[in-house]
Amino acid sequence: MKAKVICLIAFSFCTATVISQTEPYKDTSLSFDQRADDLVKRLTLEEKVTLMQDASRSVERLDIKTYNWWNEALHGVARAGLATVFPQPIGMAATFDNEAVYSVFNAISDEARAKHTRYSSENSYARYQGLTMWTPTINIFRDPRWGRGIETYGEDPYLTSLMGVAAVKGLQGPAGEKYDKIHACAKHFAVHSGPEWNRHSFNAKNIKPRDLYETYLPAFEALVKEAKVKEVMCAYNRFEDEPCCGSNKLLTDILRNKWGFDGIVVADCGAIADFYKENAHETHPDAATASAAGVLSGTDLDCGSSYKALVEGVKNGYISEKDIDVSVKRLLKARFELGEMDKSEDVEWSKIPYSVVASKAHDNLSLDMARKSMTLLLNKNNILPLKQGGLTVAVMGPNANDSVMQWGNYNGTPPRTITILEGIRSALSPNDKLIYEQGCGLVETTLIQSAFDQCAYENGKGFSAVYWNNMERQGNPAATAQITTPFRFCTSGATVFAPGVNLTDFSATYNSTFTPTKSGEAVFDFYAYGSIELYIDGQNVRNFANKHGSRKNTYIMNVEAGKPYDIQINYQFFNSDAQLNFDLGFKEEIDILKSIAKVKDADIVIFAGGISPSLEGEEMGVDLPGFKRGDRTDIELPAIQRDFVKALKEAGKKVIFVNCSGSPIGLEPETDNCEAILQAWYPGQAGGQAVADVLFGAYNPAGRLPVTFYRNTAQLPDFENYDMAGRTYRYMTEKPLYPFGYGLSYTTFAYGKPQVNKKDIKVGEAILLSIPVTNTGKSNGDEVIQVYLRKENDPQGPIKTLRAFKRVSIPAGKTATVPFELTGKQLEWWDDYQRSVIMSPGKFEILIGSSSDDKDLTSIPFTISAN
């Protein structure tokens, strides 16, 4: 009898095992739709709701692992430690090379896959370790004051569409594979481009239908229809009174119904909470009603915790469980598509080796993109390229030796960064001389002079360090050390803070006594990823935790000469790779004449100025002259830099101005005071070499402006007005400083007479162009041929709008005949009668040339007639 029972139990166990192996959601021979359908039916309401939050908890009984949906790859895998850092997207847009952008994001997705495979092999599923990248940002950079414009591909809908499509295809991998490589996310849908300071309450309203469909939506439509993007992120602000993440017009009528998007809509982080939070939108009374509204309008995933209230929402009748099932199925299907629910060894992408991360090949690609992004704006008397040999070069300016500036925002940590100063030093010959004098900061009229050498503890100079391999600073220390120079710690590349200390889950305490040699304001300067506690004389004076990558923090206090101050810094690992940079010093007033005296022997002054991601970016806590919470209140070059450049000019110096920024700067005075201006953007880890290669002629620049460079702030309409009238090259009637599409070369190009196959076409037909372009100079170079469209007798429409471009390499003295085919959306225009953008009858012009400026364009009239 006992044997029969044992056999019966064994038979039951075997039967259960067979059944579990054949459960439809585990059957890899079924479609992802079928597997998701089956799995949804097995979940409880509470389990479904946990899967609808960015930090999705596991459902162990169904073998659903923990998954964190939040990851970033704006211009390289971000916030996950070691990674290749490519130029900021606005710089990539300046390449006017969407094929190169595809190559960059193909490399990024290789690194992302390799990182995820490594993390998952260690059973680590934290934020910034997943396969869903909340990239690219394809909002239109309609106003240069918007801080997040640095994340975009510029002000033009067509350029943004092509760059965005390239980014998505590079991330998601080729079509037809069993599993997707990575999932991309088009953000932030849709009428969203500042201001940052009030984005949680701002209402973008009274938007003209024409502006909506001609300017704000085309890039999103292209990514949905052409690139098959898997995710769309809705924005913080309201659109026509409805929060974007609860907008039936945007999410249901346009995205789902009109465009047929069947992927995931994710709410920007905390956007659902803005529905009901005080001083935000306050369109809903609580989390339950807000969450129900979000899901019913089509928002599947909450980056936040508001969706916990969906359980209450079902109980109160605000939403049905059947409605929730729609979103849960989309989420599960996406995880199946990525292979995240299956065995890693069965997913081909998991075989990408970790050696691709920050590899030499990717470093070379970053350099190539940085070179291609360099945009030469001014070159008086062909002073560039500079000639080495017996040259004395002075390098000055706040961005000359700043590696972090080059990384932009939403960045990873590269193994090495070549600063502009380093790049120039390497480019000089043995017969040349270099003088480095920073001179000034970005905005303030003071500079910080280090006083680290005025710190000591009982056993010597500097700081004592004690480390623990836990995060509580408890038990026996793992290591102790003496630190005699400003802190420069980072665990990228598996580099520990000290021998014997973990790469993760560690903590530290640093102690010293600071005895200043003078009285004044002492500045404690941190750049860290982790949690910091600062104590002075036993009193806790400052705490901060940077949770989304490394950021700068400072503490300022008055000190007396000769008085000792006990300093204690507690550090705690937070996530990913740890970083702690620290120095302390005194602010000293800038002395322009004193600095200029130090470079009196220089033949050339290369001044690396502009602004920085520490000033422009996403909802920042920075309020300085010209800046407000990451936005800018004016577009002028900061006054201290302007004064410095002017003084150099008055001292008889030839100034080459290298402008680092993610947005247009008003450089009108600098065009008089400088011999040359190079727009370098935020050029990534190899940016310093790219700058030097251009300045000294190793690379012929061919970048083009993806944004209009206005003369001054007076040329800008009201920042909060989303009407396109007067904005960007498409609607601006005044003359800008530098137009969209503009950029100089070290050679010259001549355009021959364009050939067109027909000047009268019917709706639905295409136009074929053939454009001969000759390199008439002495240097090989790239030319960016640009094709614009204009409609006659349309005073409310764009003056012109980009519809095609190609970046072409042409050897000196040679001619390239460049073909274009204009078809489909390239020939569409707003139709007032049908209230949509379509190909419709009318008289048009094709404008062909080297920039958007009319003087650089040749016109070909043509007519579209009805069938």
UniProtKB/TrEMBL annotation:
The keyword Cytoplasm does not apply. Coiled coil: none annotated. Residues 458-600 form the PA14 domain. InterPro entries: BXL, Fn3-like, GH, Glyco_hydro_3_C, Glyco_hydro_3_C_sf, Glyco_hydro_3_N, Glyco_hydro_3_N_sf, Ig-like_fold. Keywords: Hydrolase, Signal. The keyword Ligase does not apply. GO terms for molecular function: alpha-L-arabinofuranosidase activity; xylan 1,4-beta-xylosidase activity. GO terms for biological process: arabinan catabolic process; xylan catabolic process. Belongs to the glycosyl hydrolase 3 family. This is Beta-glucosidase.
